[in-house]
């Protein structure tokens, strides 16, 4: 399969700047999706690919900058596996180690997974060891990407680093990790990013979650509250509502929160509210 998608001579393709470009049968660039292509699976597929690639670039840049600050040794295999990582490490001033860090079997170590897309794209993602196999299973069953390689990085996650969502959801429900991940994916969380904060759409998804997986609902609501705080602006106003609904859902469904995480959130919310600043 190529990088483009075509119907009756009209094409959509992903350019080098990761923008979806539309052209008519004469090859002229169009300002918007032509009717023959609008809301087609081919175009939706291109936007999913775009989301994955832009999310990967953003994560690699931020992670490389964090490693530069911490002086973390990064294996050459990571730069060799993926040009995005190679560029991010170079821009951040991180020199990959020819003699890689010793493999670390600890659960806090990062595992590298390389995935290939039919449209001639590959990416190497870093996952925490306990959750890597769950992501592999989900990607194999739900996405166009296929696992092609895996290797240990020897990079340990700093002990004070908080789990991100949906890994936090998986950790909170031992024995139900795959079910939790699939619920998060259906909501909009994936390897490539988070759901969009469109309140009307989120409400429908939350109602579905309440009916089908109520035990996960408080975690979803708490994460949405955090996302709203970080987004700032008008969305910040919705954070309190989601946070309050999470506590109500815990009581209704008899679930128990992670007290340490909850205390940290109360403190963070108090700080953000009193300062009036956005993260």
Question: What report would you give on this structure?
Answer:
The protein has about 280 residues and is an alpha+beta fold. The chain has helices spanning about 40-70, 75-80, 85-90, 130-140, 165-170, 175-185, 200-210, 215-230, 235-255, 260-275; strands at about 5, 10-15, 20-25, 30, 110-115, 120-130, 145-155. It contains ten helices and seven strands. Strands 1-2-3-4 form a four-stranded antiparallel sheet. The protein has a three-stranded antiparallel sheet with strand order 6-5-7, sandwiched between helices. A hairpin with a 3-residue loop joins β5 and β6. The longest helix has 30 residues, at about 40-70. It is globular. The model has no long low-confidence stretch (mean pLDDT about 85).
Classify the secondary structure makeup into a structural class: alpha+beta
- Counting DSSP H or I runs of 4 or more residues, the number of helices is 10
Q: Give, in spatial order, the strands making up the sheet with the most strands.
A: 1-2-3-4
Find the count of extended strands (DSSP E, 2+ residues).
Answer: 7
The overall pLDDT average reads: 87
**Spans of at least 5 consecutive residues with low confidence:** none
């Amino acid at each position: 399969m190529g990088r483009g998608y075509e119907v009756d001579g009209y094409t959509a393709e992903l350019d080098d700047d990761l923008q979806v470009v539309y052209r008519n049968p004469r090859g002229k660039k169009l300002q918007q999706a032509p009717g023959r292509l609008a809301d087609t699976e081919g175009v939706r597929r291109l936007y999913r690919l775009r989301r994955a690639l832009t999310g990967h670039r953003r994560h690699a840049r931020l992670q490389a900058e964090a490693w530069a600050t911490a002086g973390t040794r990064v294996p050459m295999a990571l730069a060799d596996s993926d040009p995005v990582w190679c560029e991010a490490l170079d821009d951040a001033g991180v020199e990959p180690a020819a003699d890689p860090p010793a493999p670390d079997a600890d659960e806090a170590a990062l595992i590298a997974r390389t995935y290939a897309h039919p449209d001639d794209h590959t990416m190497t993602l870093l996952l925490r060891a306990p959750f890597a196999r769950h992501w592999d299973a989900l990607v194999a069953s739900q996405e166009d990407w296929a696992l092609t390689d895996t290797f240990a990085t020897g990079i340990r996650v700093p002990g004070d680093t908080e789990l991100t969502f949906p890994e936090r959801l998986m950790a909170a429900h031992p024995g139900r990790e795959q079910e939790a991940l699939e619920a998060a994916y259906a909501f909009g969380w994936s390897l490539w990013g988070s759901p969009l904060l469109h309140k009307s759409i989120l409400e429908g998804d939350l109602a579905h979650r309440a009916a089908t997986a109520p035990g996960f609902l408080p975690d979803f609501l708490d994460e949405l509250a955090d996302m709203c705080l970080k987004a700032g602006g008008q969305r910040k106003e919705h954070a309190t509502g989601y946070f309050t609904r999470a506590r109500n859902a815990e009581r209704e469904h008899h679930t128990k929160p992670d007290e340490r995480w909850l205390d940290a959130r109360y403190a963070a919310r108090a700080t953000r509210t009193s300062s009036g600043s956005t993260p």
